[in-house]
Give the backbone structure.
Amino acid sequence: MNTQLATYLPLAPLALLVLGALLALLLVPSVRHGDPDRTMAWHAGMVNLSALVLSVTLWVRPVIGMEPVGATGAFRATYMGGALVVDSLSLLLVALASAGALLVLPGLMAAADRGSFAHGELHALLLFAVAGSGVVASAGDVFTGFLGLEIVALSVYGLVGLDRSRPGAHEAVLKYLLLGAFASAILLLGMAFLFGATGSLSLGRLQAAAVHLPPARHGLVMLGLAAMVAGLAFKVAAAPFHMWSADVYEGAVTPLTGFMATVVKVTAFVFGLRLLVAGLAGVGTDWQPLLAALAAASMVVGNLMAMNQRKPKRMMAFSSVVHTGYMLVGLAAAAGSTGTDAVQALVVYLVAYLLTNLAAFGCLDVLERNGGLDGAMQRNPGLATAFVVALLSLVGFPMTAGFLGKYMVFSVAFGAGLGWLGVLAILSSMVSLAYYMPLLFRVLSGALPSPAAPPSLATGERVALAVSSGLVLVLGAGILAVAGWMVPGAHWVAQWALQSGAVLLP
Amino acid sequence: MALHAPLLVAAALFSIGVGGFVARRNVFALLMCIELMLNAVNLVFVTFSRQWLSVEGHVTVLLVVALAAAEAAVALAIVIMLFRHRETLDVDVFASMKE
């Protein structure tokens, strides 16, 4: 192959996702014979699967054009004058986003099959959301990242609004759209101030400008930083910008809620990592208190609200606000001298959070349409076991992914001099038992509903739930590394996360 | 010195947008307020672009215009759906989800 062309090979996962999404738009009106729904589902599944396989392959075996960074085996390739970057972190996000889309696909198809909405548009919009994640993943420029976030947001507005028969869908999509657009405008204003203070939105030049900032421009940077952090806090549903999340999570079909709570949130966190840790490390002492305050508020408010919810889905929405708080603890810790460790901890937490919540929302979806949670262990032991694993991981029970993530994030908080935040996070995990345990008891020993039919679920859903809850356990076994044991799957995730930290920090 | 004037206009536009977003109850009015805010940001970008003598801000403005158009397309589709469902565009009508 031509070497000039070969240097573009690292962009293959992103290119595949974008082309796959565009092709889906062409397929929707043109596939007429056979079973159009299955064709579209195959298309979406194959594009996501190929993107997943490609990004993992590129991580295992870097190709021409990917220059090594540091001694961890991390690498980076830049394109278009630095506006697009492919490094260890971008490949990880592409892998996570396409894996997330693959795992929610069976649930979404089942929801569409129940007659609520069209298949074709569903798959096209889902592919566009994943492609938007890919753009955020590869952003070497603040504005590129923002465009990626907007592609994700506009696709997800469409996905929430797709299910017209659902009672809460109209309200959910209206709130999400209006508040989302408002937050984007604030985010953009912050970007304009940042541009005014530094003269560029490229992350590389921002990094250099933030280190040698003239005191006269410091105020403008602070203003921009505050606006951008507020806008991002909305995107990740951190308190006090979380009010939309419970209504939107409740109004959307449950598999889609799972997608929003995982892929969309993780994408916004990767944008935050690139903007704050890579771009604005020079003013770390300025943004650390902002993030620490948001983290503390999210943990306190999220816990208080979650305790007062009767519907499991709303409870999960607020529990996800609490988890955002833990992730913000990791991000705040990345401002200090222990930045690489903090980024590694946060990235491991993001992976653990993604897998756990995909399993939890997936199980919740199946259980809720089959007679509720009560006594699920007697009706379908397999499904109930997956749900119990997900719940234990949300609590942070040892040997689950949630414990590994919490252990790493809380330790870096203490290491970075944020001891008070670490203590608050540990207290918050204990308090969270108050709303996870009742759910656990209902599944294990609740009274059986009168017609005790076993839940019906498609093979795809079975596979997706088995994979996500199985991976939660595999990643959770990674805690054995503390005792010097290498656990294959978990070891790779930790290695990938370490390299993500190495490419962000010089 | 000359840069202060456009920045003040932008600040006024943005404030009108935020104020309207908080005060108005019609979906169309809210969307127009968001457009006002985006245009205020565009003005800030152009002003700072002039200050730094760089084209980066100008290019960003063009992309923001494209983004606003995409957002409007999705928003209007959703407005049509809402109107068919409830025959009203008052946002207070869409507030049934509470615990």
